[in-house]
Amino acid sequence: MLGVLMFLVGAILNWAYNVIHLVFLVGVWPLILMYPIIIFLLTLEYPQRLFLFIHKFNFPFFADFDQPEVFGFSPGRCRNFKIKTPDNVSLGMWHILPSVLYRQITDAQERHRKVPHGSLVTKGIQRRALVERPVFLYFHGNAGNRAAPTRIATYRNVSERLNCNVVAVDYRGFGDSEGSPTEADLAIDARAAYNWIVDQGVPHTNIVLLGHSLGTGVAARLARDLGKDGIFPRGLVLQAPYMSIPEAAFEYRAFQVVNLFYPLSFFPKIEEYLKNCILDRFNTRSHIPHLNIPILMIHGAKDREIPVKNSQQLYATAVAAHLGPTKLSSAPEISLTGEEAFRDFVDKTEEVGGGFELEGRRYVSERNKSVRVADGEVVGPPKAMFVELTHAHHNSVQAHDLTYDSIEDFLEIPDQASVTGVGASNNSLSQLAE
């Protein structure tokens, strides 16, 4: 009997070995042989940009941007339109109305029952909303377009929780926008979208730059470019930001699991060479000390795609800049195991408020009052906040209440229940549309 059992065990082990060997030969060896080829291709311009922007993955596929109702918006609440950049590239954009304003208009229509639901949301009303409530200019991450579900969730939260306008833009190469993306061209797109908002009569102090993931680099670059021209929007909000693309690329985990570049960590010189080959660098860390507007960084502690240490480092850089133009080097380098250095560094800034233990931790820092701002001097933002969400992942930052509570408090979003001029009669609605 024992001999039979031993024979069966041996047969099973032999079968398992053959299966594993076959899988290794068929599946693993080709990957090992192809790995150097893949890495080489990523040093070339076209495949590198395909990998970074993933703009060919245009999800939701075959989206009809002219009908936002397909994505759950009420009639007239979201307007699709296009603008032209200075280099004559067409960009697709959405404007989502503040929820309170939209409800006021539609409630008045329903009471009079004379016009279809949402039909009185004219361009005049949209312009009035832009002027009277803050505007969040949203820059999305890589892959997909402005109609992706997680992005629509952000629009809804900003327009409903904060009662603010949202203007969402698809960079060139994304959605229904023309062209192909590069860092320099995305900077042109961002400025064109910003200028469109200003052209509607919106003051700079009523515009908030909001970026997520890849879009944080676009937003930070825009803030830096605006500052060079003496233009200072209300604030900059970075959700799941990174220090720079070369640093983020070598720690990025696709699908929160696979780190394509991990094997290269054993070959530092090759890794450094490949970092130098990256064309679009989006160096947010280099922009932070030069920004003269409030900066809010929000990051999920469970983010495995862009680890939270990126926001820790960016916040530390902003705080160090507050200490004065000669103290920037005092910001600690935050490594994967260097959280203690960060905690020690921000102890002086203290946590803001209380009762957030289950949601996350908030830190705030304001510029030293003794620091004098002179032309060309690096003194950092007037104030900075870092929010670490305990339970958030890379694409769930927009789903947390603490995100919007922090934006509202930090940027002092005015609490206004309505937009002036919206009354209960069709006459007043007509006047508003003029």
UniProtKB/TrEMBL annotation:
GO cellular component, as recorded: endoplasmic reticulum membrane
Keyword Lipid metabolism appears in the UniProt entry: no
Source organism, top-level taxon: Eukaryota
Claim: Transmembrane helix is one of the keywords in the record: yes
Gene Ontology BP terms: monoacylglycerol catabolic process; phosphatidylserine catabolic process
Recorded GO MF terms: monoacylglycerol lipase activity; phosphatidylcholine lysophospholipase activity
InterPro entries given in the database record: AB_hydrolase_1 (IPR000073), AB_hydrolase_fold (IPR029058)
PANTHER family reported in the protein's UniProt record: ALPHA/BETA HYDROLASE DOMAIN-CONTAINING PROTEIN, FI04476P
Name of the protein this chain belongs to: AB hydrolase-1 domain-containing protein
